[in-house]
Amino acid sequence: MITLIKGTEAACGVDAANASTFGSATAVRLVNTTSTARLVTVIDEVGGSTTIGTFTLLGNTKEVVEKKSTEAIFAAHASVLGAKVGYTIS
Fold it and tell me: What pTM value is reported for the model?
């Protein structure tokens, strides 16, 4: 798999009010830059109160999350970074 970078990497917000859609992304690459596992939450919209889902991002790992363009992501710590991505098949 090749990752197509489509946006600038930024720290995740740490609550719903500071969540991000990462530029209305439908795929977001998340990386946990510390050795501590962090909870990641996907919600219905920035500032929203409906949780779509959560997962634990292990320390020093990365994951790509697929979501709707209006859904937003926040993490338990700003050490989780995210960037809008796409996929390409070569």
Answer: 0.94
pLDDT at residue 16 in the model = 98
Q: Phi/psi at 16 (nearest 5 deg)?
A: -60, -40
CA dist 9 → 14, 23, 48, 80 (Å): 16, 11, 22, 10
CATH number of the domain where residue 60 is located: 2.60.120
Could you tell me the residue range of the domain that residue 79 belongs to?
Answer: 2-88
Give the C-alpha separation, 69 to 58, whole Å: 25
**Based on the structure, what is the number of domains in the chain?**
1
Instruction: Please state, in angstroms and rounded to a whole number, the distance separating the CA atoms of residues 90 and 87.
Output: 10
CA nearest neighbour of 9 among 17, 25, 1: 25
